[in-house]
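Entry for the shared binder. Reason: the reviewer on the internal report wants the predicted structure included alongside the sequence.
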Amino acid sequence: MAKQSYDAIVIGAGFGGAACAGLLAKHGLSVLLLDKNAKAGGKAMAFSKKGFTYTAWMVCSAPTDGNVLEAVLKELEMEDRVTLVAPGIQGSRFKNSKGEWPISPQDKTPDPNKIFDWLEVPEADRADALQVLADLTMMSPDEIAKLDDISFAEWLGRYKINKNLYSFLIGPVSDGCFMVPVDALAASEAVGTIQQVFLRGGGVFAHGGIGRVAETYADAVKENGGRVIMRCRVEKITVEDGKVTGVITSKGTFKAPIVVSNAGIQPTVLKLVGEQHFDQGYVNYVKGLLPSIAMVGVRYFTNKVVIKDVPYGTIFTPDTPMNMAKWMKAKTGAIPDEITVWYEVPSNYDPNAAPPGKQVIVTGIWAPCDPKRTKKDHQPWWDKVDEMMFKVFPDLPNAIEWKEGYSSRDVSNLTRDQVLPGIGGECIGLGQIVGQAGGRKPPTTAPIQGLFFVGCDAGGTGIGIQQATDSGVKVARMVERYHAMRQAII
């Protein structure tokens, strides 16, 4: 009979949950890792179909040098299981004053003046431009920590910034990394993370899809004596006398004095545990937390190579950066004429990601995160992706063998249950916004003994999957200490 009791149960094999579970197992705990899906990876899960390999939506990770994904693989002694690649180039396209879409400089460490030339920043504006870039890059951690309570827009407002440079800092960088409006984004999160990208590079991928990293973390659980059960939906976290006791799932009941949830703080508190186990103030706090914007888009499967060499890029104009007022109009139907589009071409960093001479191009744009939105609701957003991509890549329409739109409903179905109106299909998880980011991010420990949160909702810093993995590392350390103290003292 299979084991039913463990030192720790981890719910969800996204990057945070899988990293946490793998590290706990490696360090000697008896671990059970559960996930409702067929494989690990969460929002960065890898898929294969008809010879193409890709993530469900556009995923780009940063920084490249000294990244936490690789650090965890090394700690697990599994770095040889995944081929991480950092091509060092990207293919952003900026609409210039002639209406053309030139590609960004292709140097691995671009000369700022080449960036300014590409963005048409006049000589008279370049000293101010260099000042803001220098301050972004060189700010100390102590100074960054003081920026929790102001937005990135407020911080940028301290400088005289050329409009085109501003659009670059917001569109390809801020809007894509954080998926929240610049006047909501906590400046501490923005400056700290963008600094990492500027100093240590951006664009980490993996052969077979970046989800292979999370799959390897999950493999570490099994190889270190733990257990992994996929296609296993957790229905309830059981609690007695203010302490977790285990979980009830679609495949049985399991016991543990420690439960780590990668299901999201709101689904965990409001559904898996239940409001009755928390005081009303905490419940209200959890209900009031706000998500990131959703990413929706189109996957194009082509019969020829349309985008050469570059693994990813951003399409943007001087007018595409979002703020709260502009986003409120867009999400109610007034989609701007031109919007920022992010794209990824897996076969340009992994030669086995597409059949010879073909490509899959995965795109993403901002969209409302309500998972109840229908295909009809999403169609105007998918049409806008087509419009933007076809402008910039005129060979694309005639090269398409088939295409697929993905929606906020797909994101929710794959990764996060809806428990509050309008929330569930978000791109990242909790928004990295003023009041709930930096030092004000929700704590990783719940007000129930033995319950921890992991992933993009608590404990980590950075962009997307690296934020989740950073949380996984930190929560694993906390759980190890908690477990050791219980073993030693009780």
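Summary line for the report: The longest strand covers residues 294-302.
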